[in-house]
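Problem 3 from the worked examples.
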Amino acid sequence: MRIDNGISPYTQKLDAATLAKIYGCSSQDFIKTETRHRVAIERSRGVNVRDKHFSEKRNQEFVDFCRATGLRRAEITSLKNSQLIFDEDTNLYFLDIVGKGGRRRLAPILSDEAVQRVKNANGLVWNKIPNGADIHAYRGDYCTAIYNKHARPLDEIPKKDIYCCKKDLKGVKYDKQAMIIASQALGHNRISVIAAHYIRK
């Protein structure tokens, strides 16, 4: 019924996996879902799909903060100044984040302004989060910045260190080492996730 109503293949997979978990089986035992295609994803795919009521200009400090920290909406909502960490070895500031699935990570902060915002906060860093902000897109900007900061010229690294994208991104290549660093900063385990959904060439 859900498939007939036109839900996306991604939601189909999620629903099927949930049912499979309840009944203690594989989703392939009882239903065939449609194939997922990255190009069909609309979230954060350009200006036309974003909330027209949200003004980045009026919320510039918040937008810049998101791009400098790469946090998810829930992580920003609960962020406190006590989560700020200074690493003397690298002379850099990080945010101590317990993210999706209870995974803990240290997210590097990319701007002095974001550091000051956390330092000056009294408890919560942001008391109100704008509803229309495209936080997923800002995470993509953050991921790209982290990747570019650590990426080596592809023609100067071993072939085994080069990640080759597939399907609609065929021909796009990345430095695996930089991808791992960017993926960890975002709170993802697989570099394939950031290759498909976060890094922007």
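Problem 4, a separate protein:
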Amino acid sequence: MGDSILLSIKPKYVNAILKGEKKYEFRKVIPQSTRIKDVYIYASSPMKKIVAKFSLNNIIQASPEEIWIQCSQYGGISKEDFFKYYKTKTEAYALAINNLEIFEKPICPYNEFKKFTPPQSFLYYNRLQST
């Protein structure tokens, strides 16, 4: 069985994912585990809910320029914002969003888990469930 992670994503990008316009989630850092199977999407403030999950079966690792060339059509972000995000980085990651499952009833993590703190980058969902 694989691990699951929770990603904190701004609502405007979450909405683009839910509409199918954004098929890649860009990250500066990814988990070291190669066993990540599912990614849960936490829509940050003001939503503050876990709204969906997707299967993680493809991570593209390359320079920001190369990631932009490969993924910008379905990146859901402007070129200016993308390169501002990676301004000091030589390496970028694009997580391909596959098998998106939108939750009919979003999960309020503050009610569901003890001591929930939204992740800066990501956190292991499995560990969150055991707290």
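Solution to problem 4. The first strand starts at residue 3 and ends at 9. The first helix runs from residue 11 to 18.
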